[in-house]
Design a protein that fits this description.
alpha/beta, 265 residues, D-Maltodextrin-Binding Protein, domain 2, five-stranded mixed sheet, 39% helix
Length: 265
């Protein structure tokens, strides 16, 4: 039997309570409650819509944090090939996704076509000089901005369109290439380019440019945005759940708000 004064007994109980409390707080969270961070590498043209969708998803799933890595689809493809820790890849074209699939880097059965887009010719809002694609050959149109065709799907679609219309060779000395489609938008917004080719969704977010014309549908490959979970994802279950969310009705409303169109499954 341990005999001690009343004050000593109180002190012992307080110490024990503190130790037990510390043990409780130090215990690891159950796996189901641990916070998961998903890294989503996505085409820069998706930024506004995905920022909104990601925020909505985090509100519904507080255990998940979505981190977006935006850029040109080709650049993102190369990052994945070099081992970047990515859970989901959301491309602006099938080409980059096809390449990663051929290299065995996609999770089996995870690839989905999420949305479609339209390619448009834009000019500064303050100028009415350009009224159609044929005006690009005029001598007073000095700079035309396109995405770099090898890494930016919008640039590849743009070159296809200009070649289809028989304009590419006539204007190629005027072309200034940009690292991604948002850079093309900036060049035109600031007047550093007289015209540019971007997605309709990019043009819609800026009051400083106007849409001159849409590229004919048969002038370029279909503009389809596929998304997938990567084979080496560390969060396979959570990644597949977010991918399903991107296909859902709530995400579809946001995509349409920013000008994206639905696509066939």
């Amino acid at each position: 039997m341990i005999v001690c004064g009343k004050g000593r007994v109180v002190q012992v109980f307080l110490v024990l309570a503190m130790i037990m409390g510390a043990a409780i707080f130090a215990a690891p969270e159950p796996l189901s409650q641990q916070r998961v961070t998903l890294i989503v590498s996505a085409a820069i043209s998706l930024k506004n819509s995905l920022d909104e969708i990601g925020h909505a998803y985090e509100q519904e799933h507080p255990e998940v944090k979505i981190t977006f890595n935006y850029g040109g689809s080709g650049t993102l493809q190369h990052q994945i090939e070099q081992g970047a820790p990515v859970d989901i890849f959301f491309s602006a074209a099938k080409k980059q996704m096809d390449t990663l699939q051929s290299e065995g880097l996609l999770a089996v059965g995870a690839r989905r076509n999420i949305v479609a887009n339209t390619l448009v010719l834009i000019a500064p809002a303050s100028s009415n000089a350009i009224r159609g694609f044929s005006d690009l050959t005029r001598s007073d149109v000095r700079v035309i901005s396109l995405g770099e065709a090898s890494t930016v799907p919008a640039g590849a679609y743009a070159q296809q369109t200009l070649e289809h219309l028989g304009l590419f060779l006539a204007i190629r000395k005027k072309i200034v290439y940009a690292k991604d489609v948002r850079a093309v938008l900036t060049y035109v917004e600031t007047g550093n380019a007289d015209a540019g080719l971007v997605y309709q969704t990019d043009a819609k977010i800026s009051s400083r440019v106007r849409i001159v014309a849409a590229a004919p549908e048969n002038s370029h490959d279909p503009i389809v945005y596929p998304a997938t979970v990567l084979k080496n994802s560390k969060n396979m279950v959570a990644a597949r759940e977010f991918l399903s969310f991107l296909e859902g009705a709530g995400a579809r409303i946001v995509f349409q708000k920013y000008g994206f169109a639905p696509t066939e499954k």
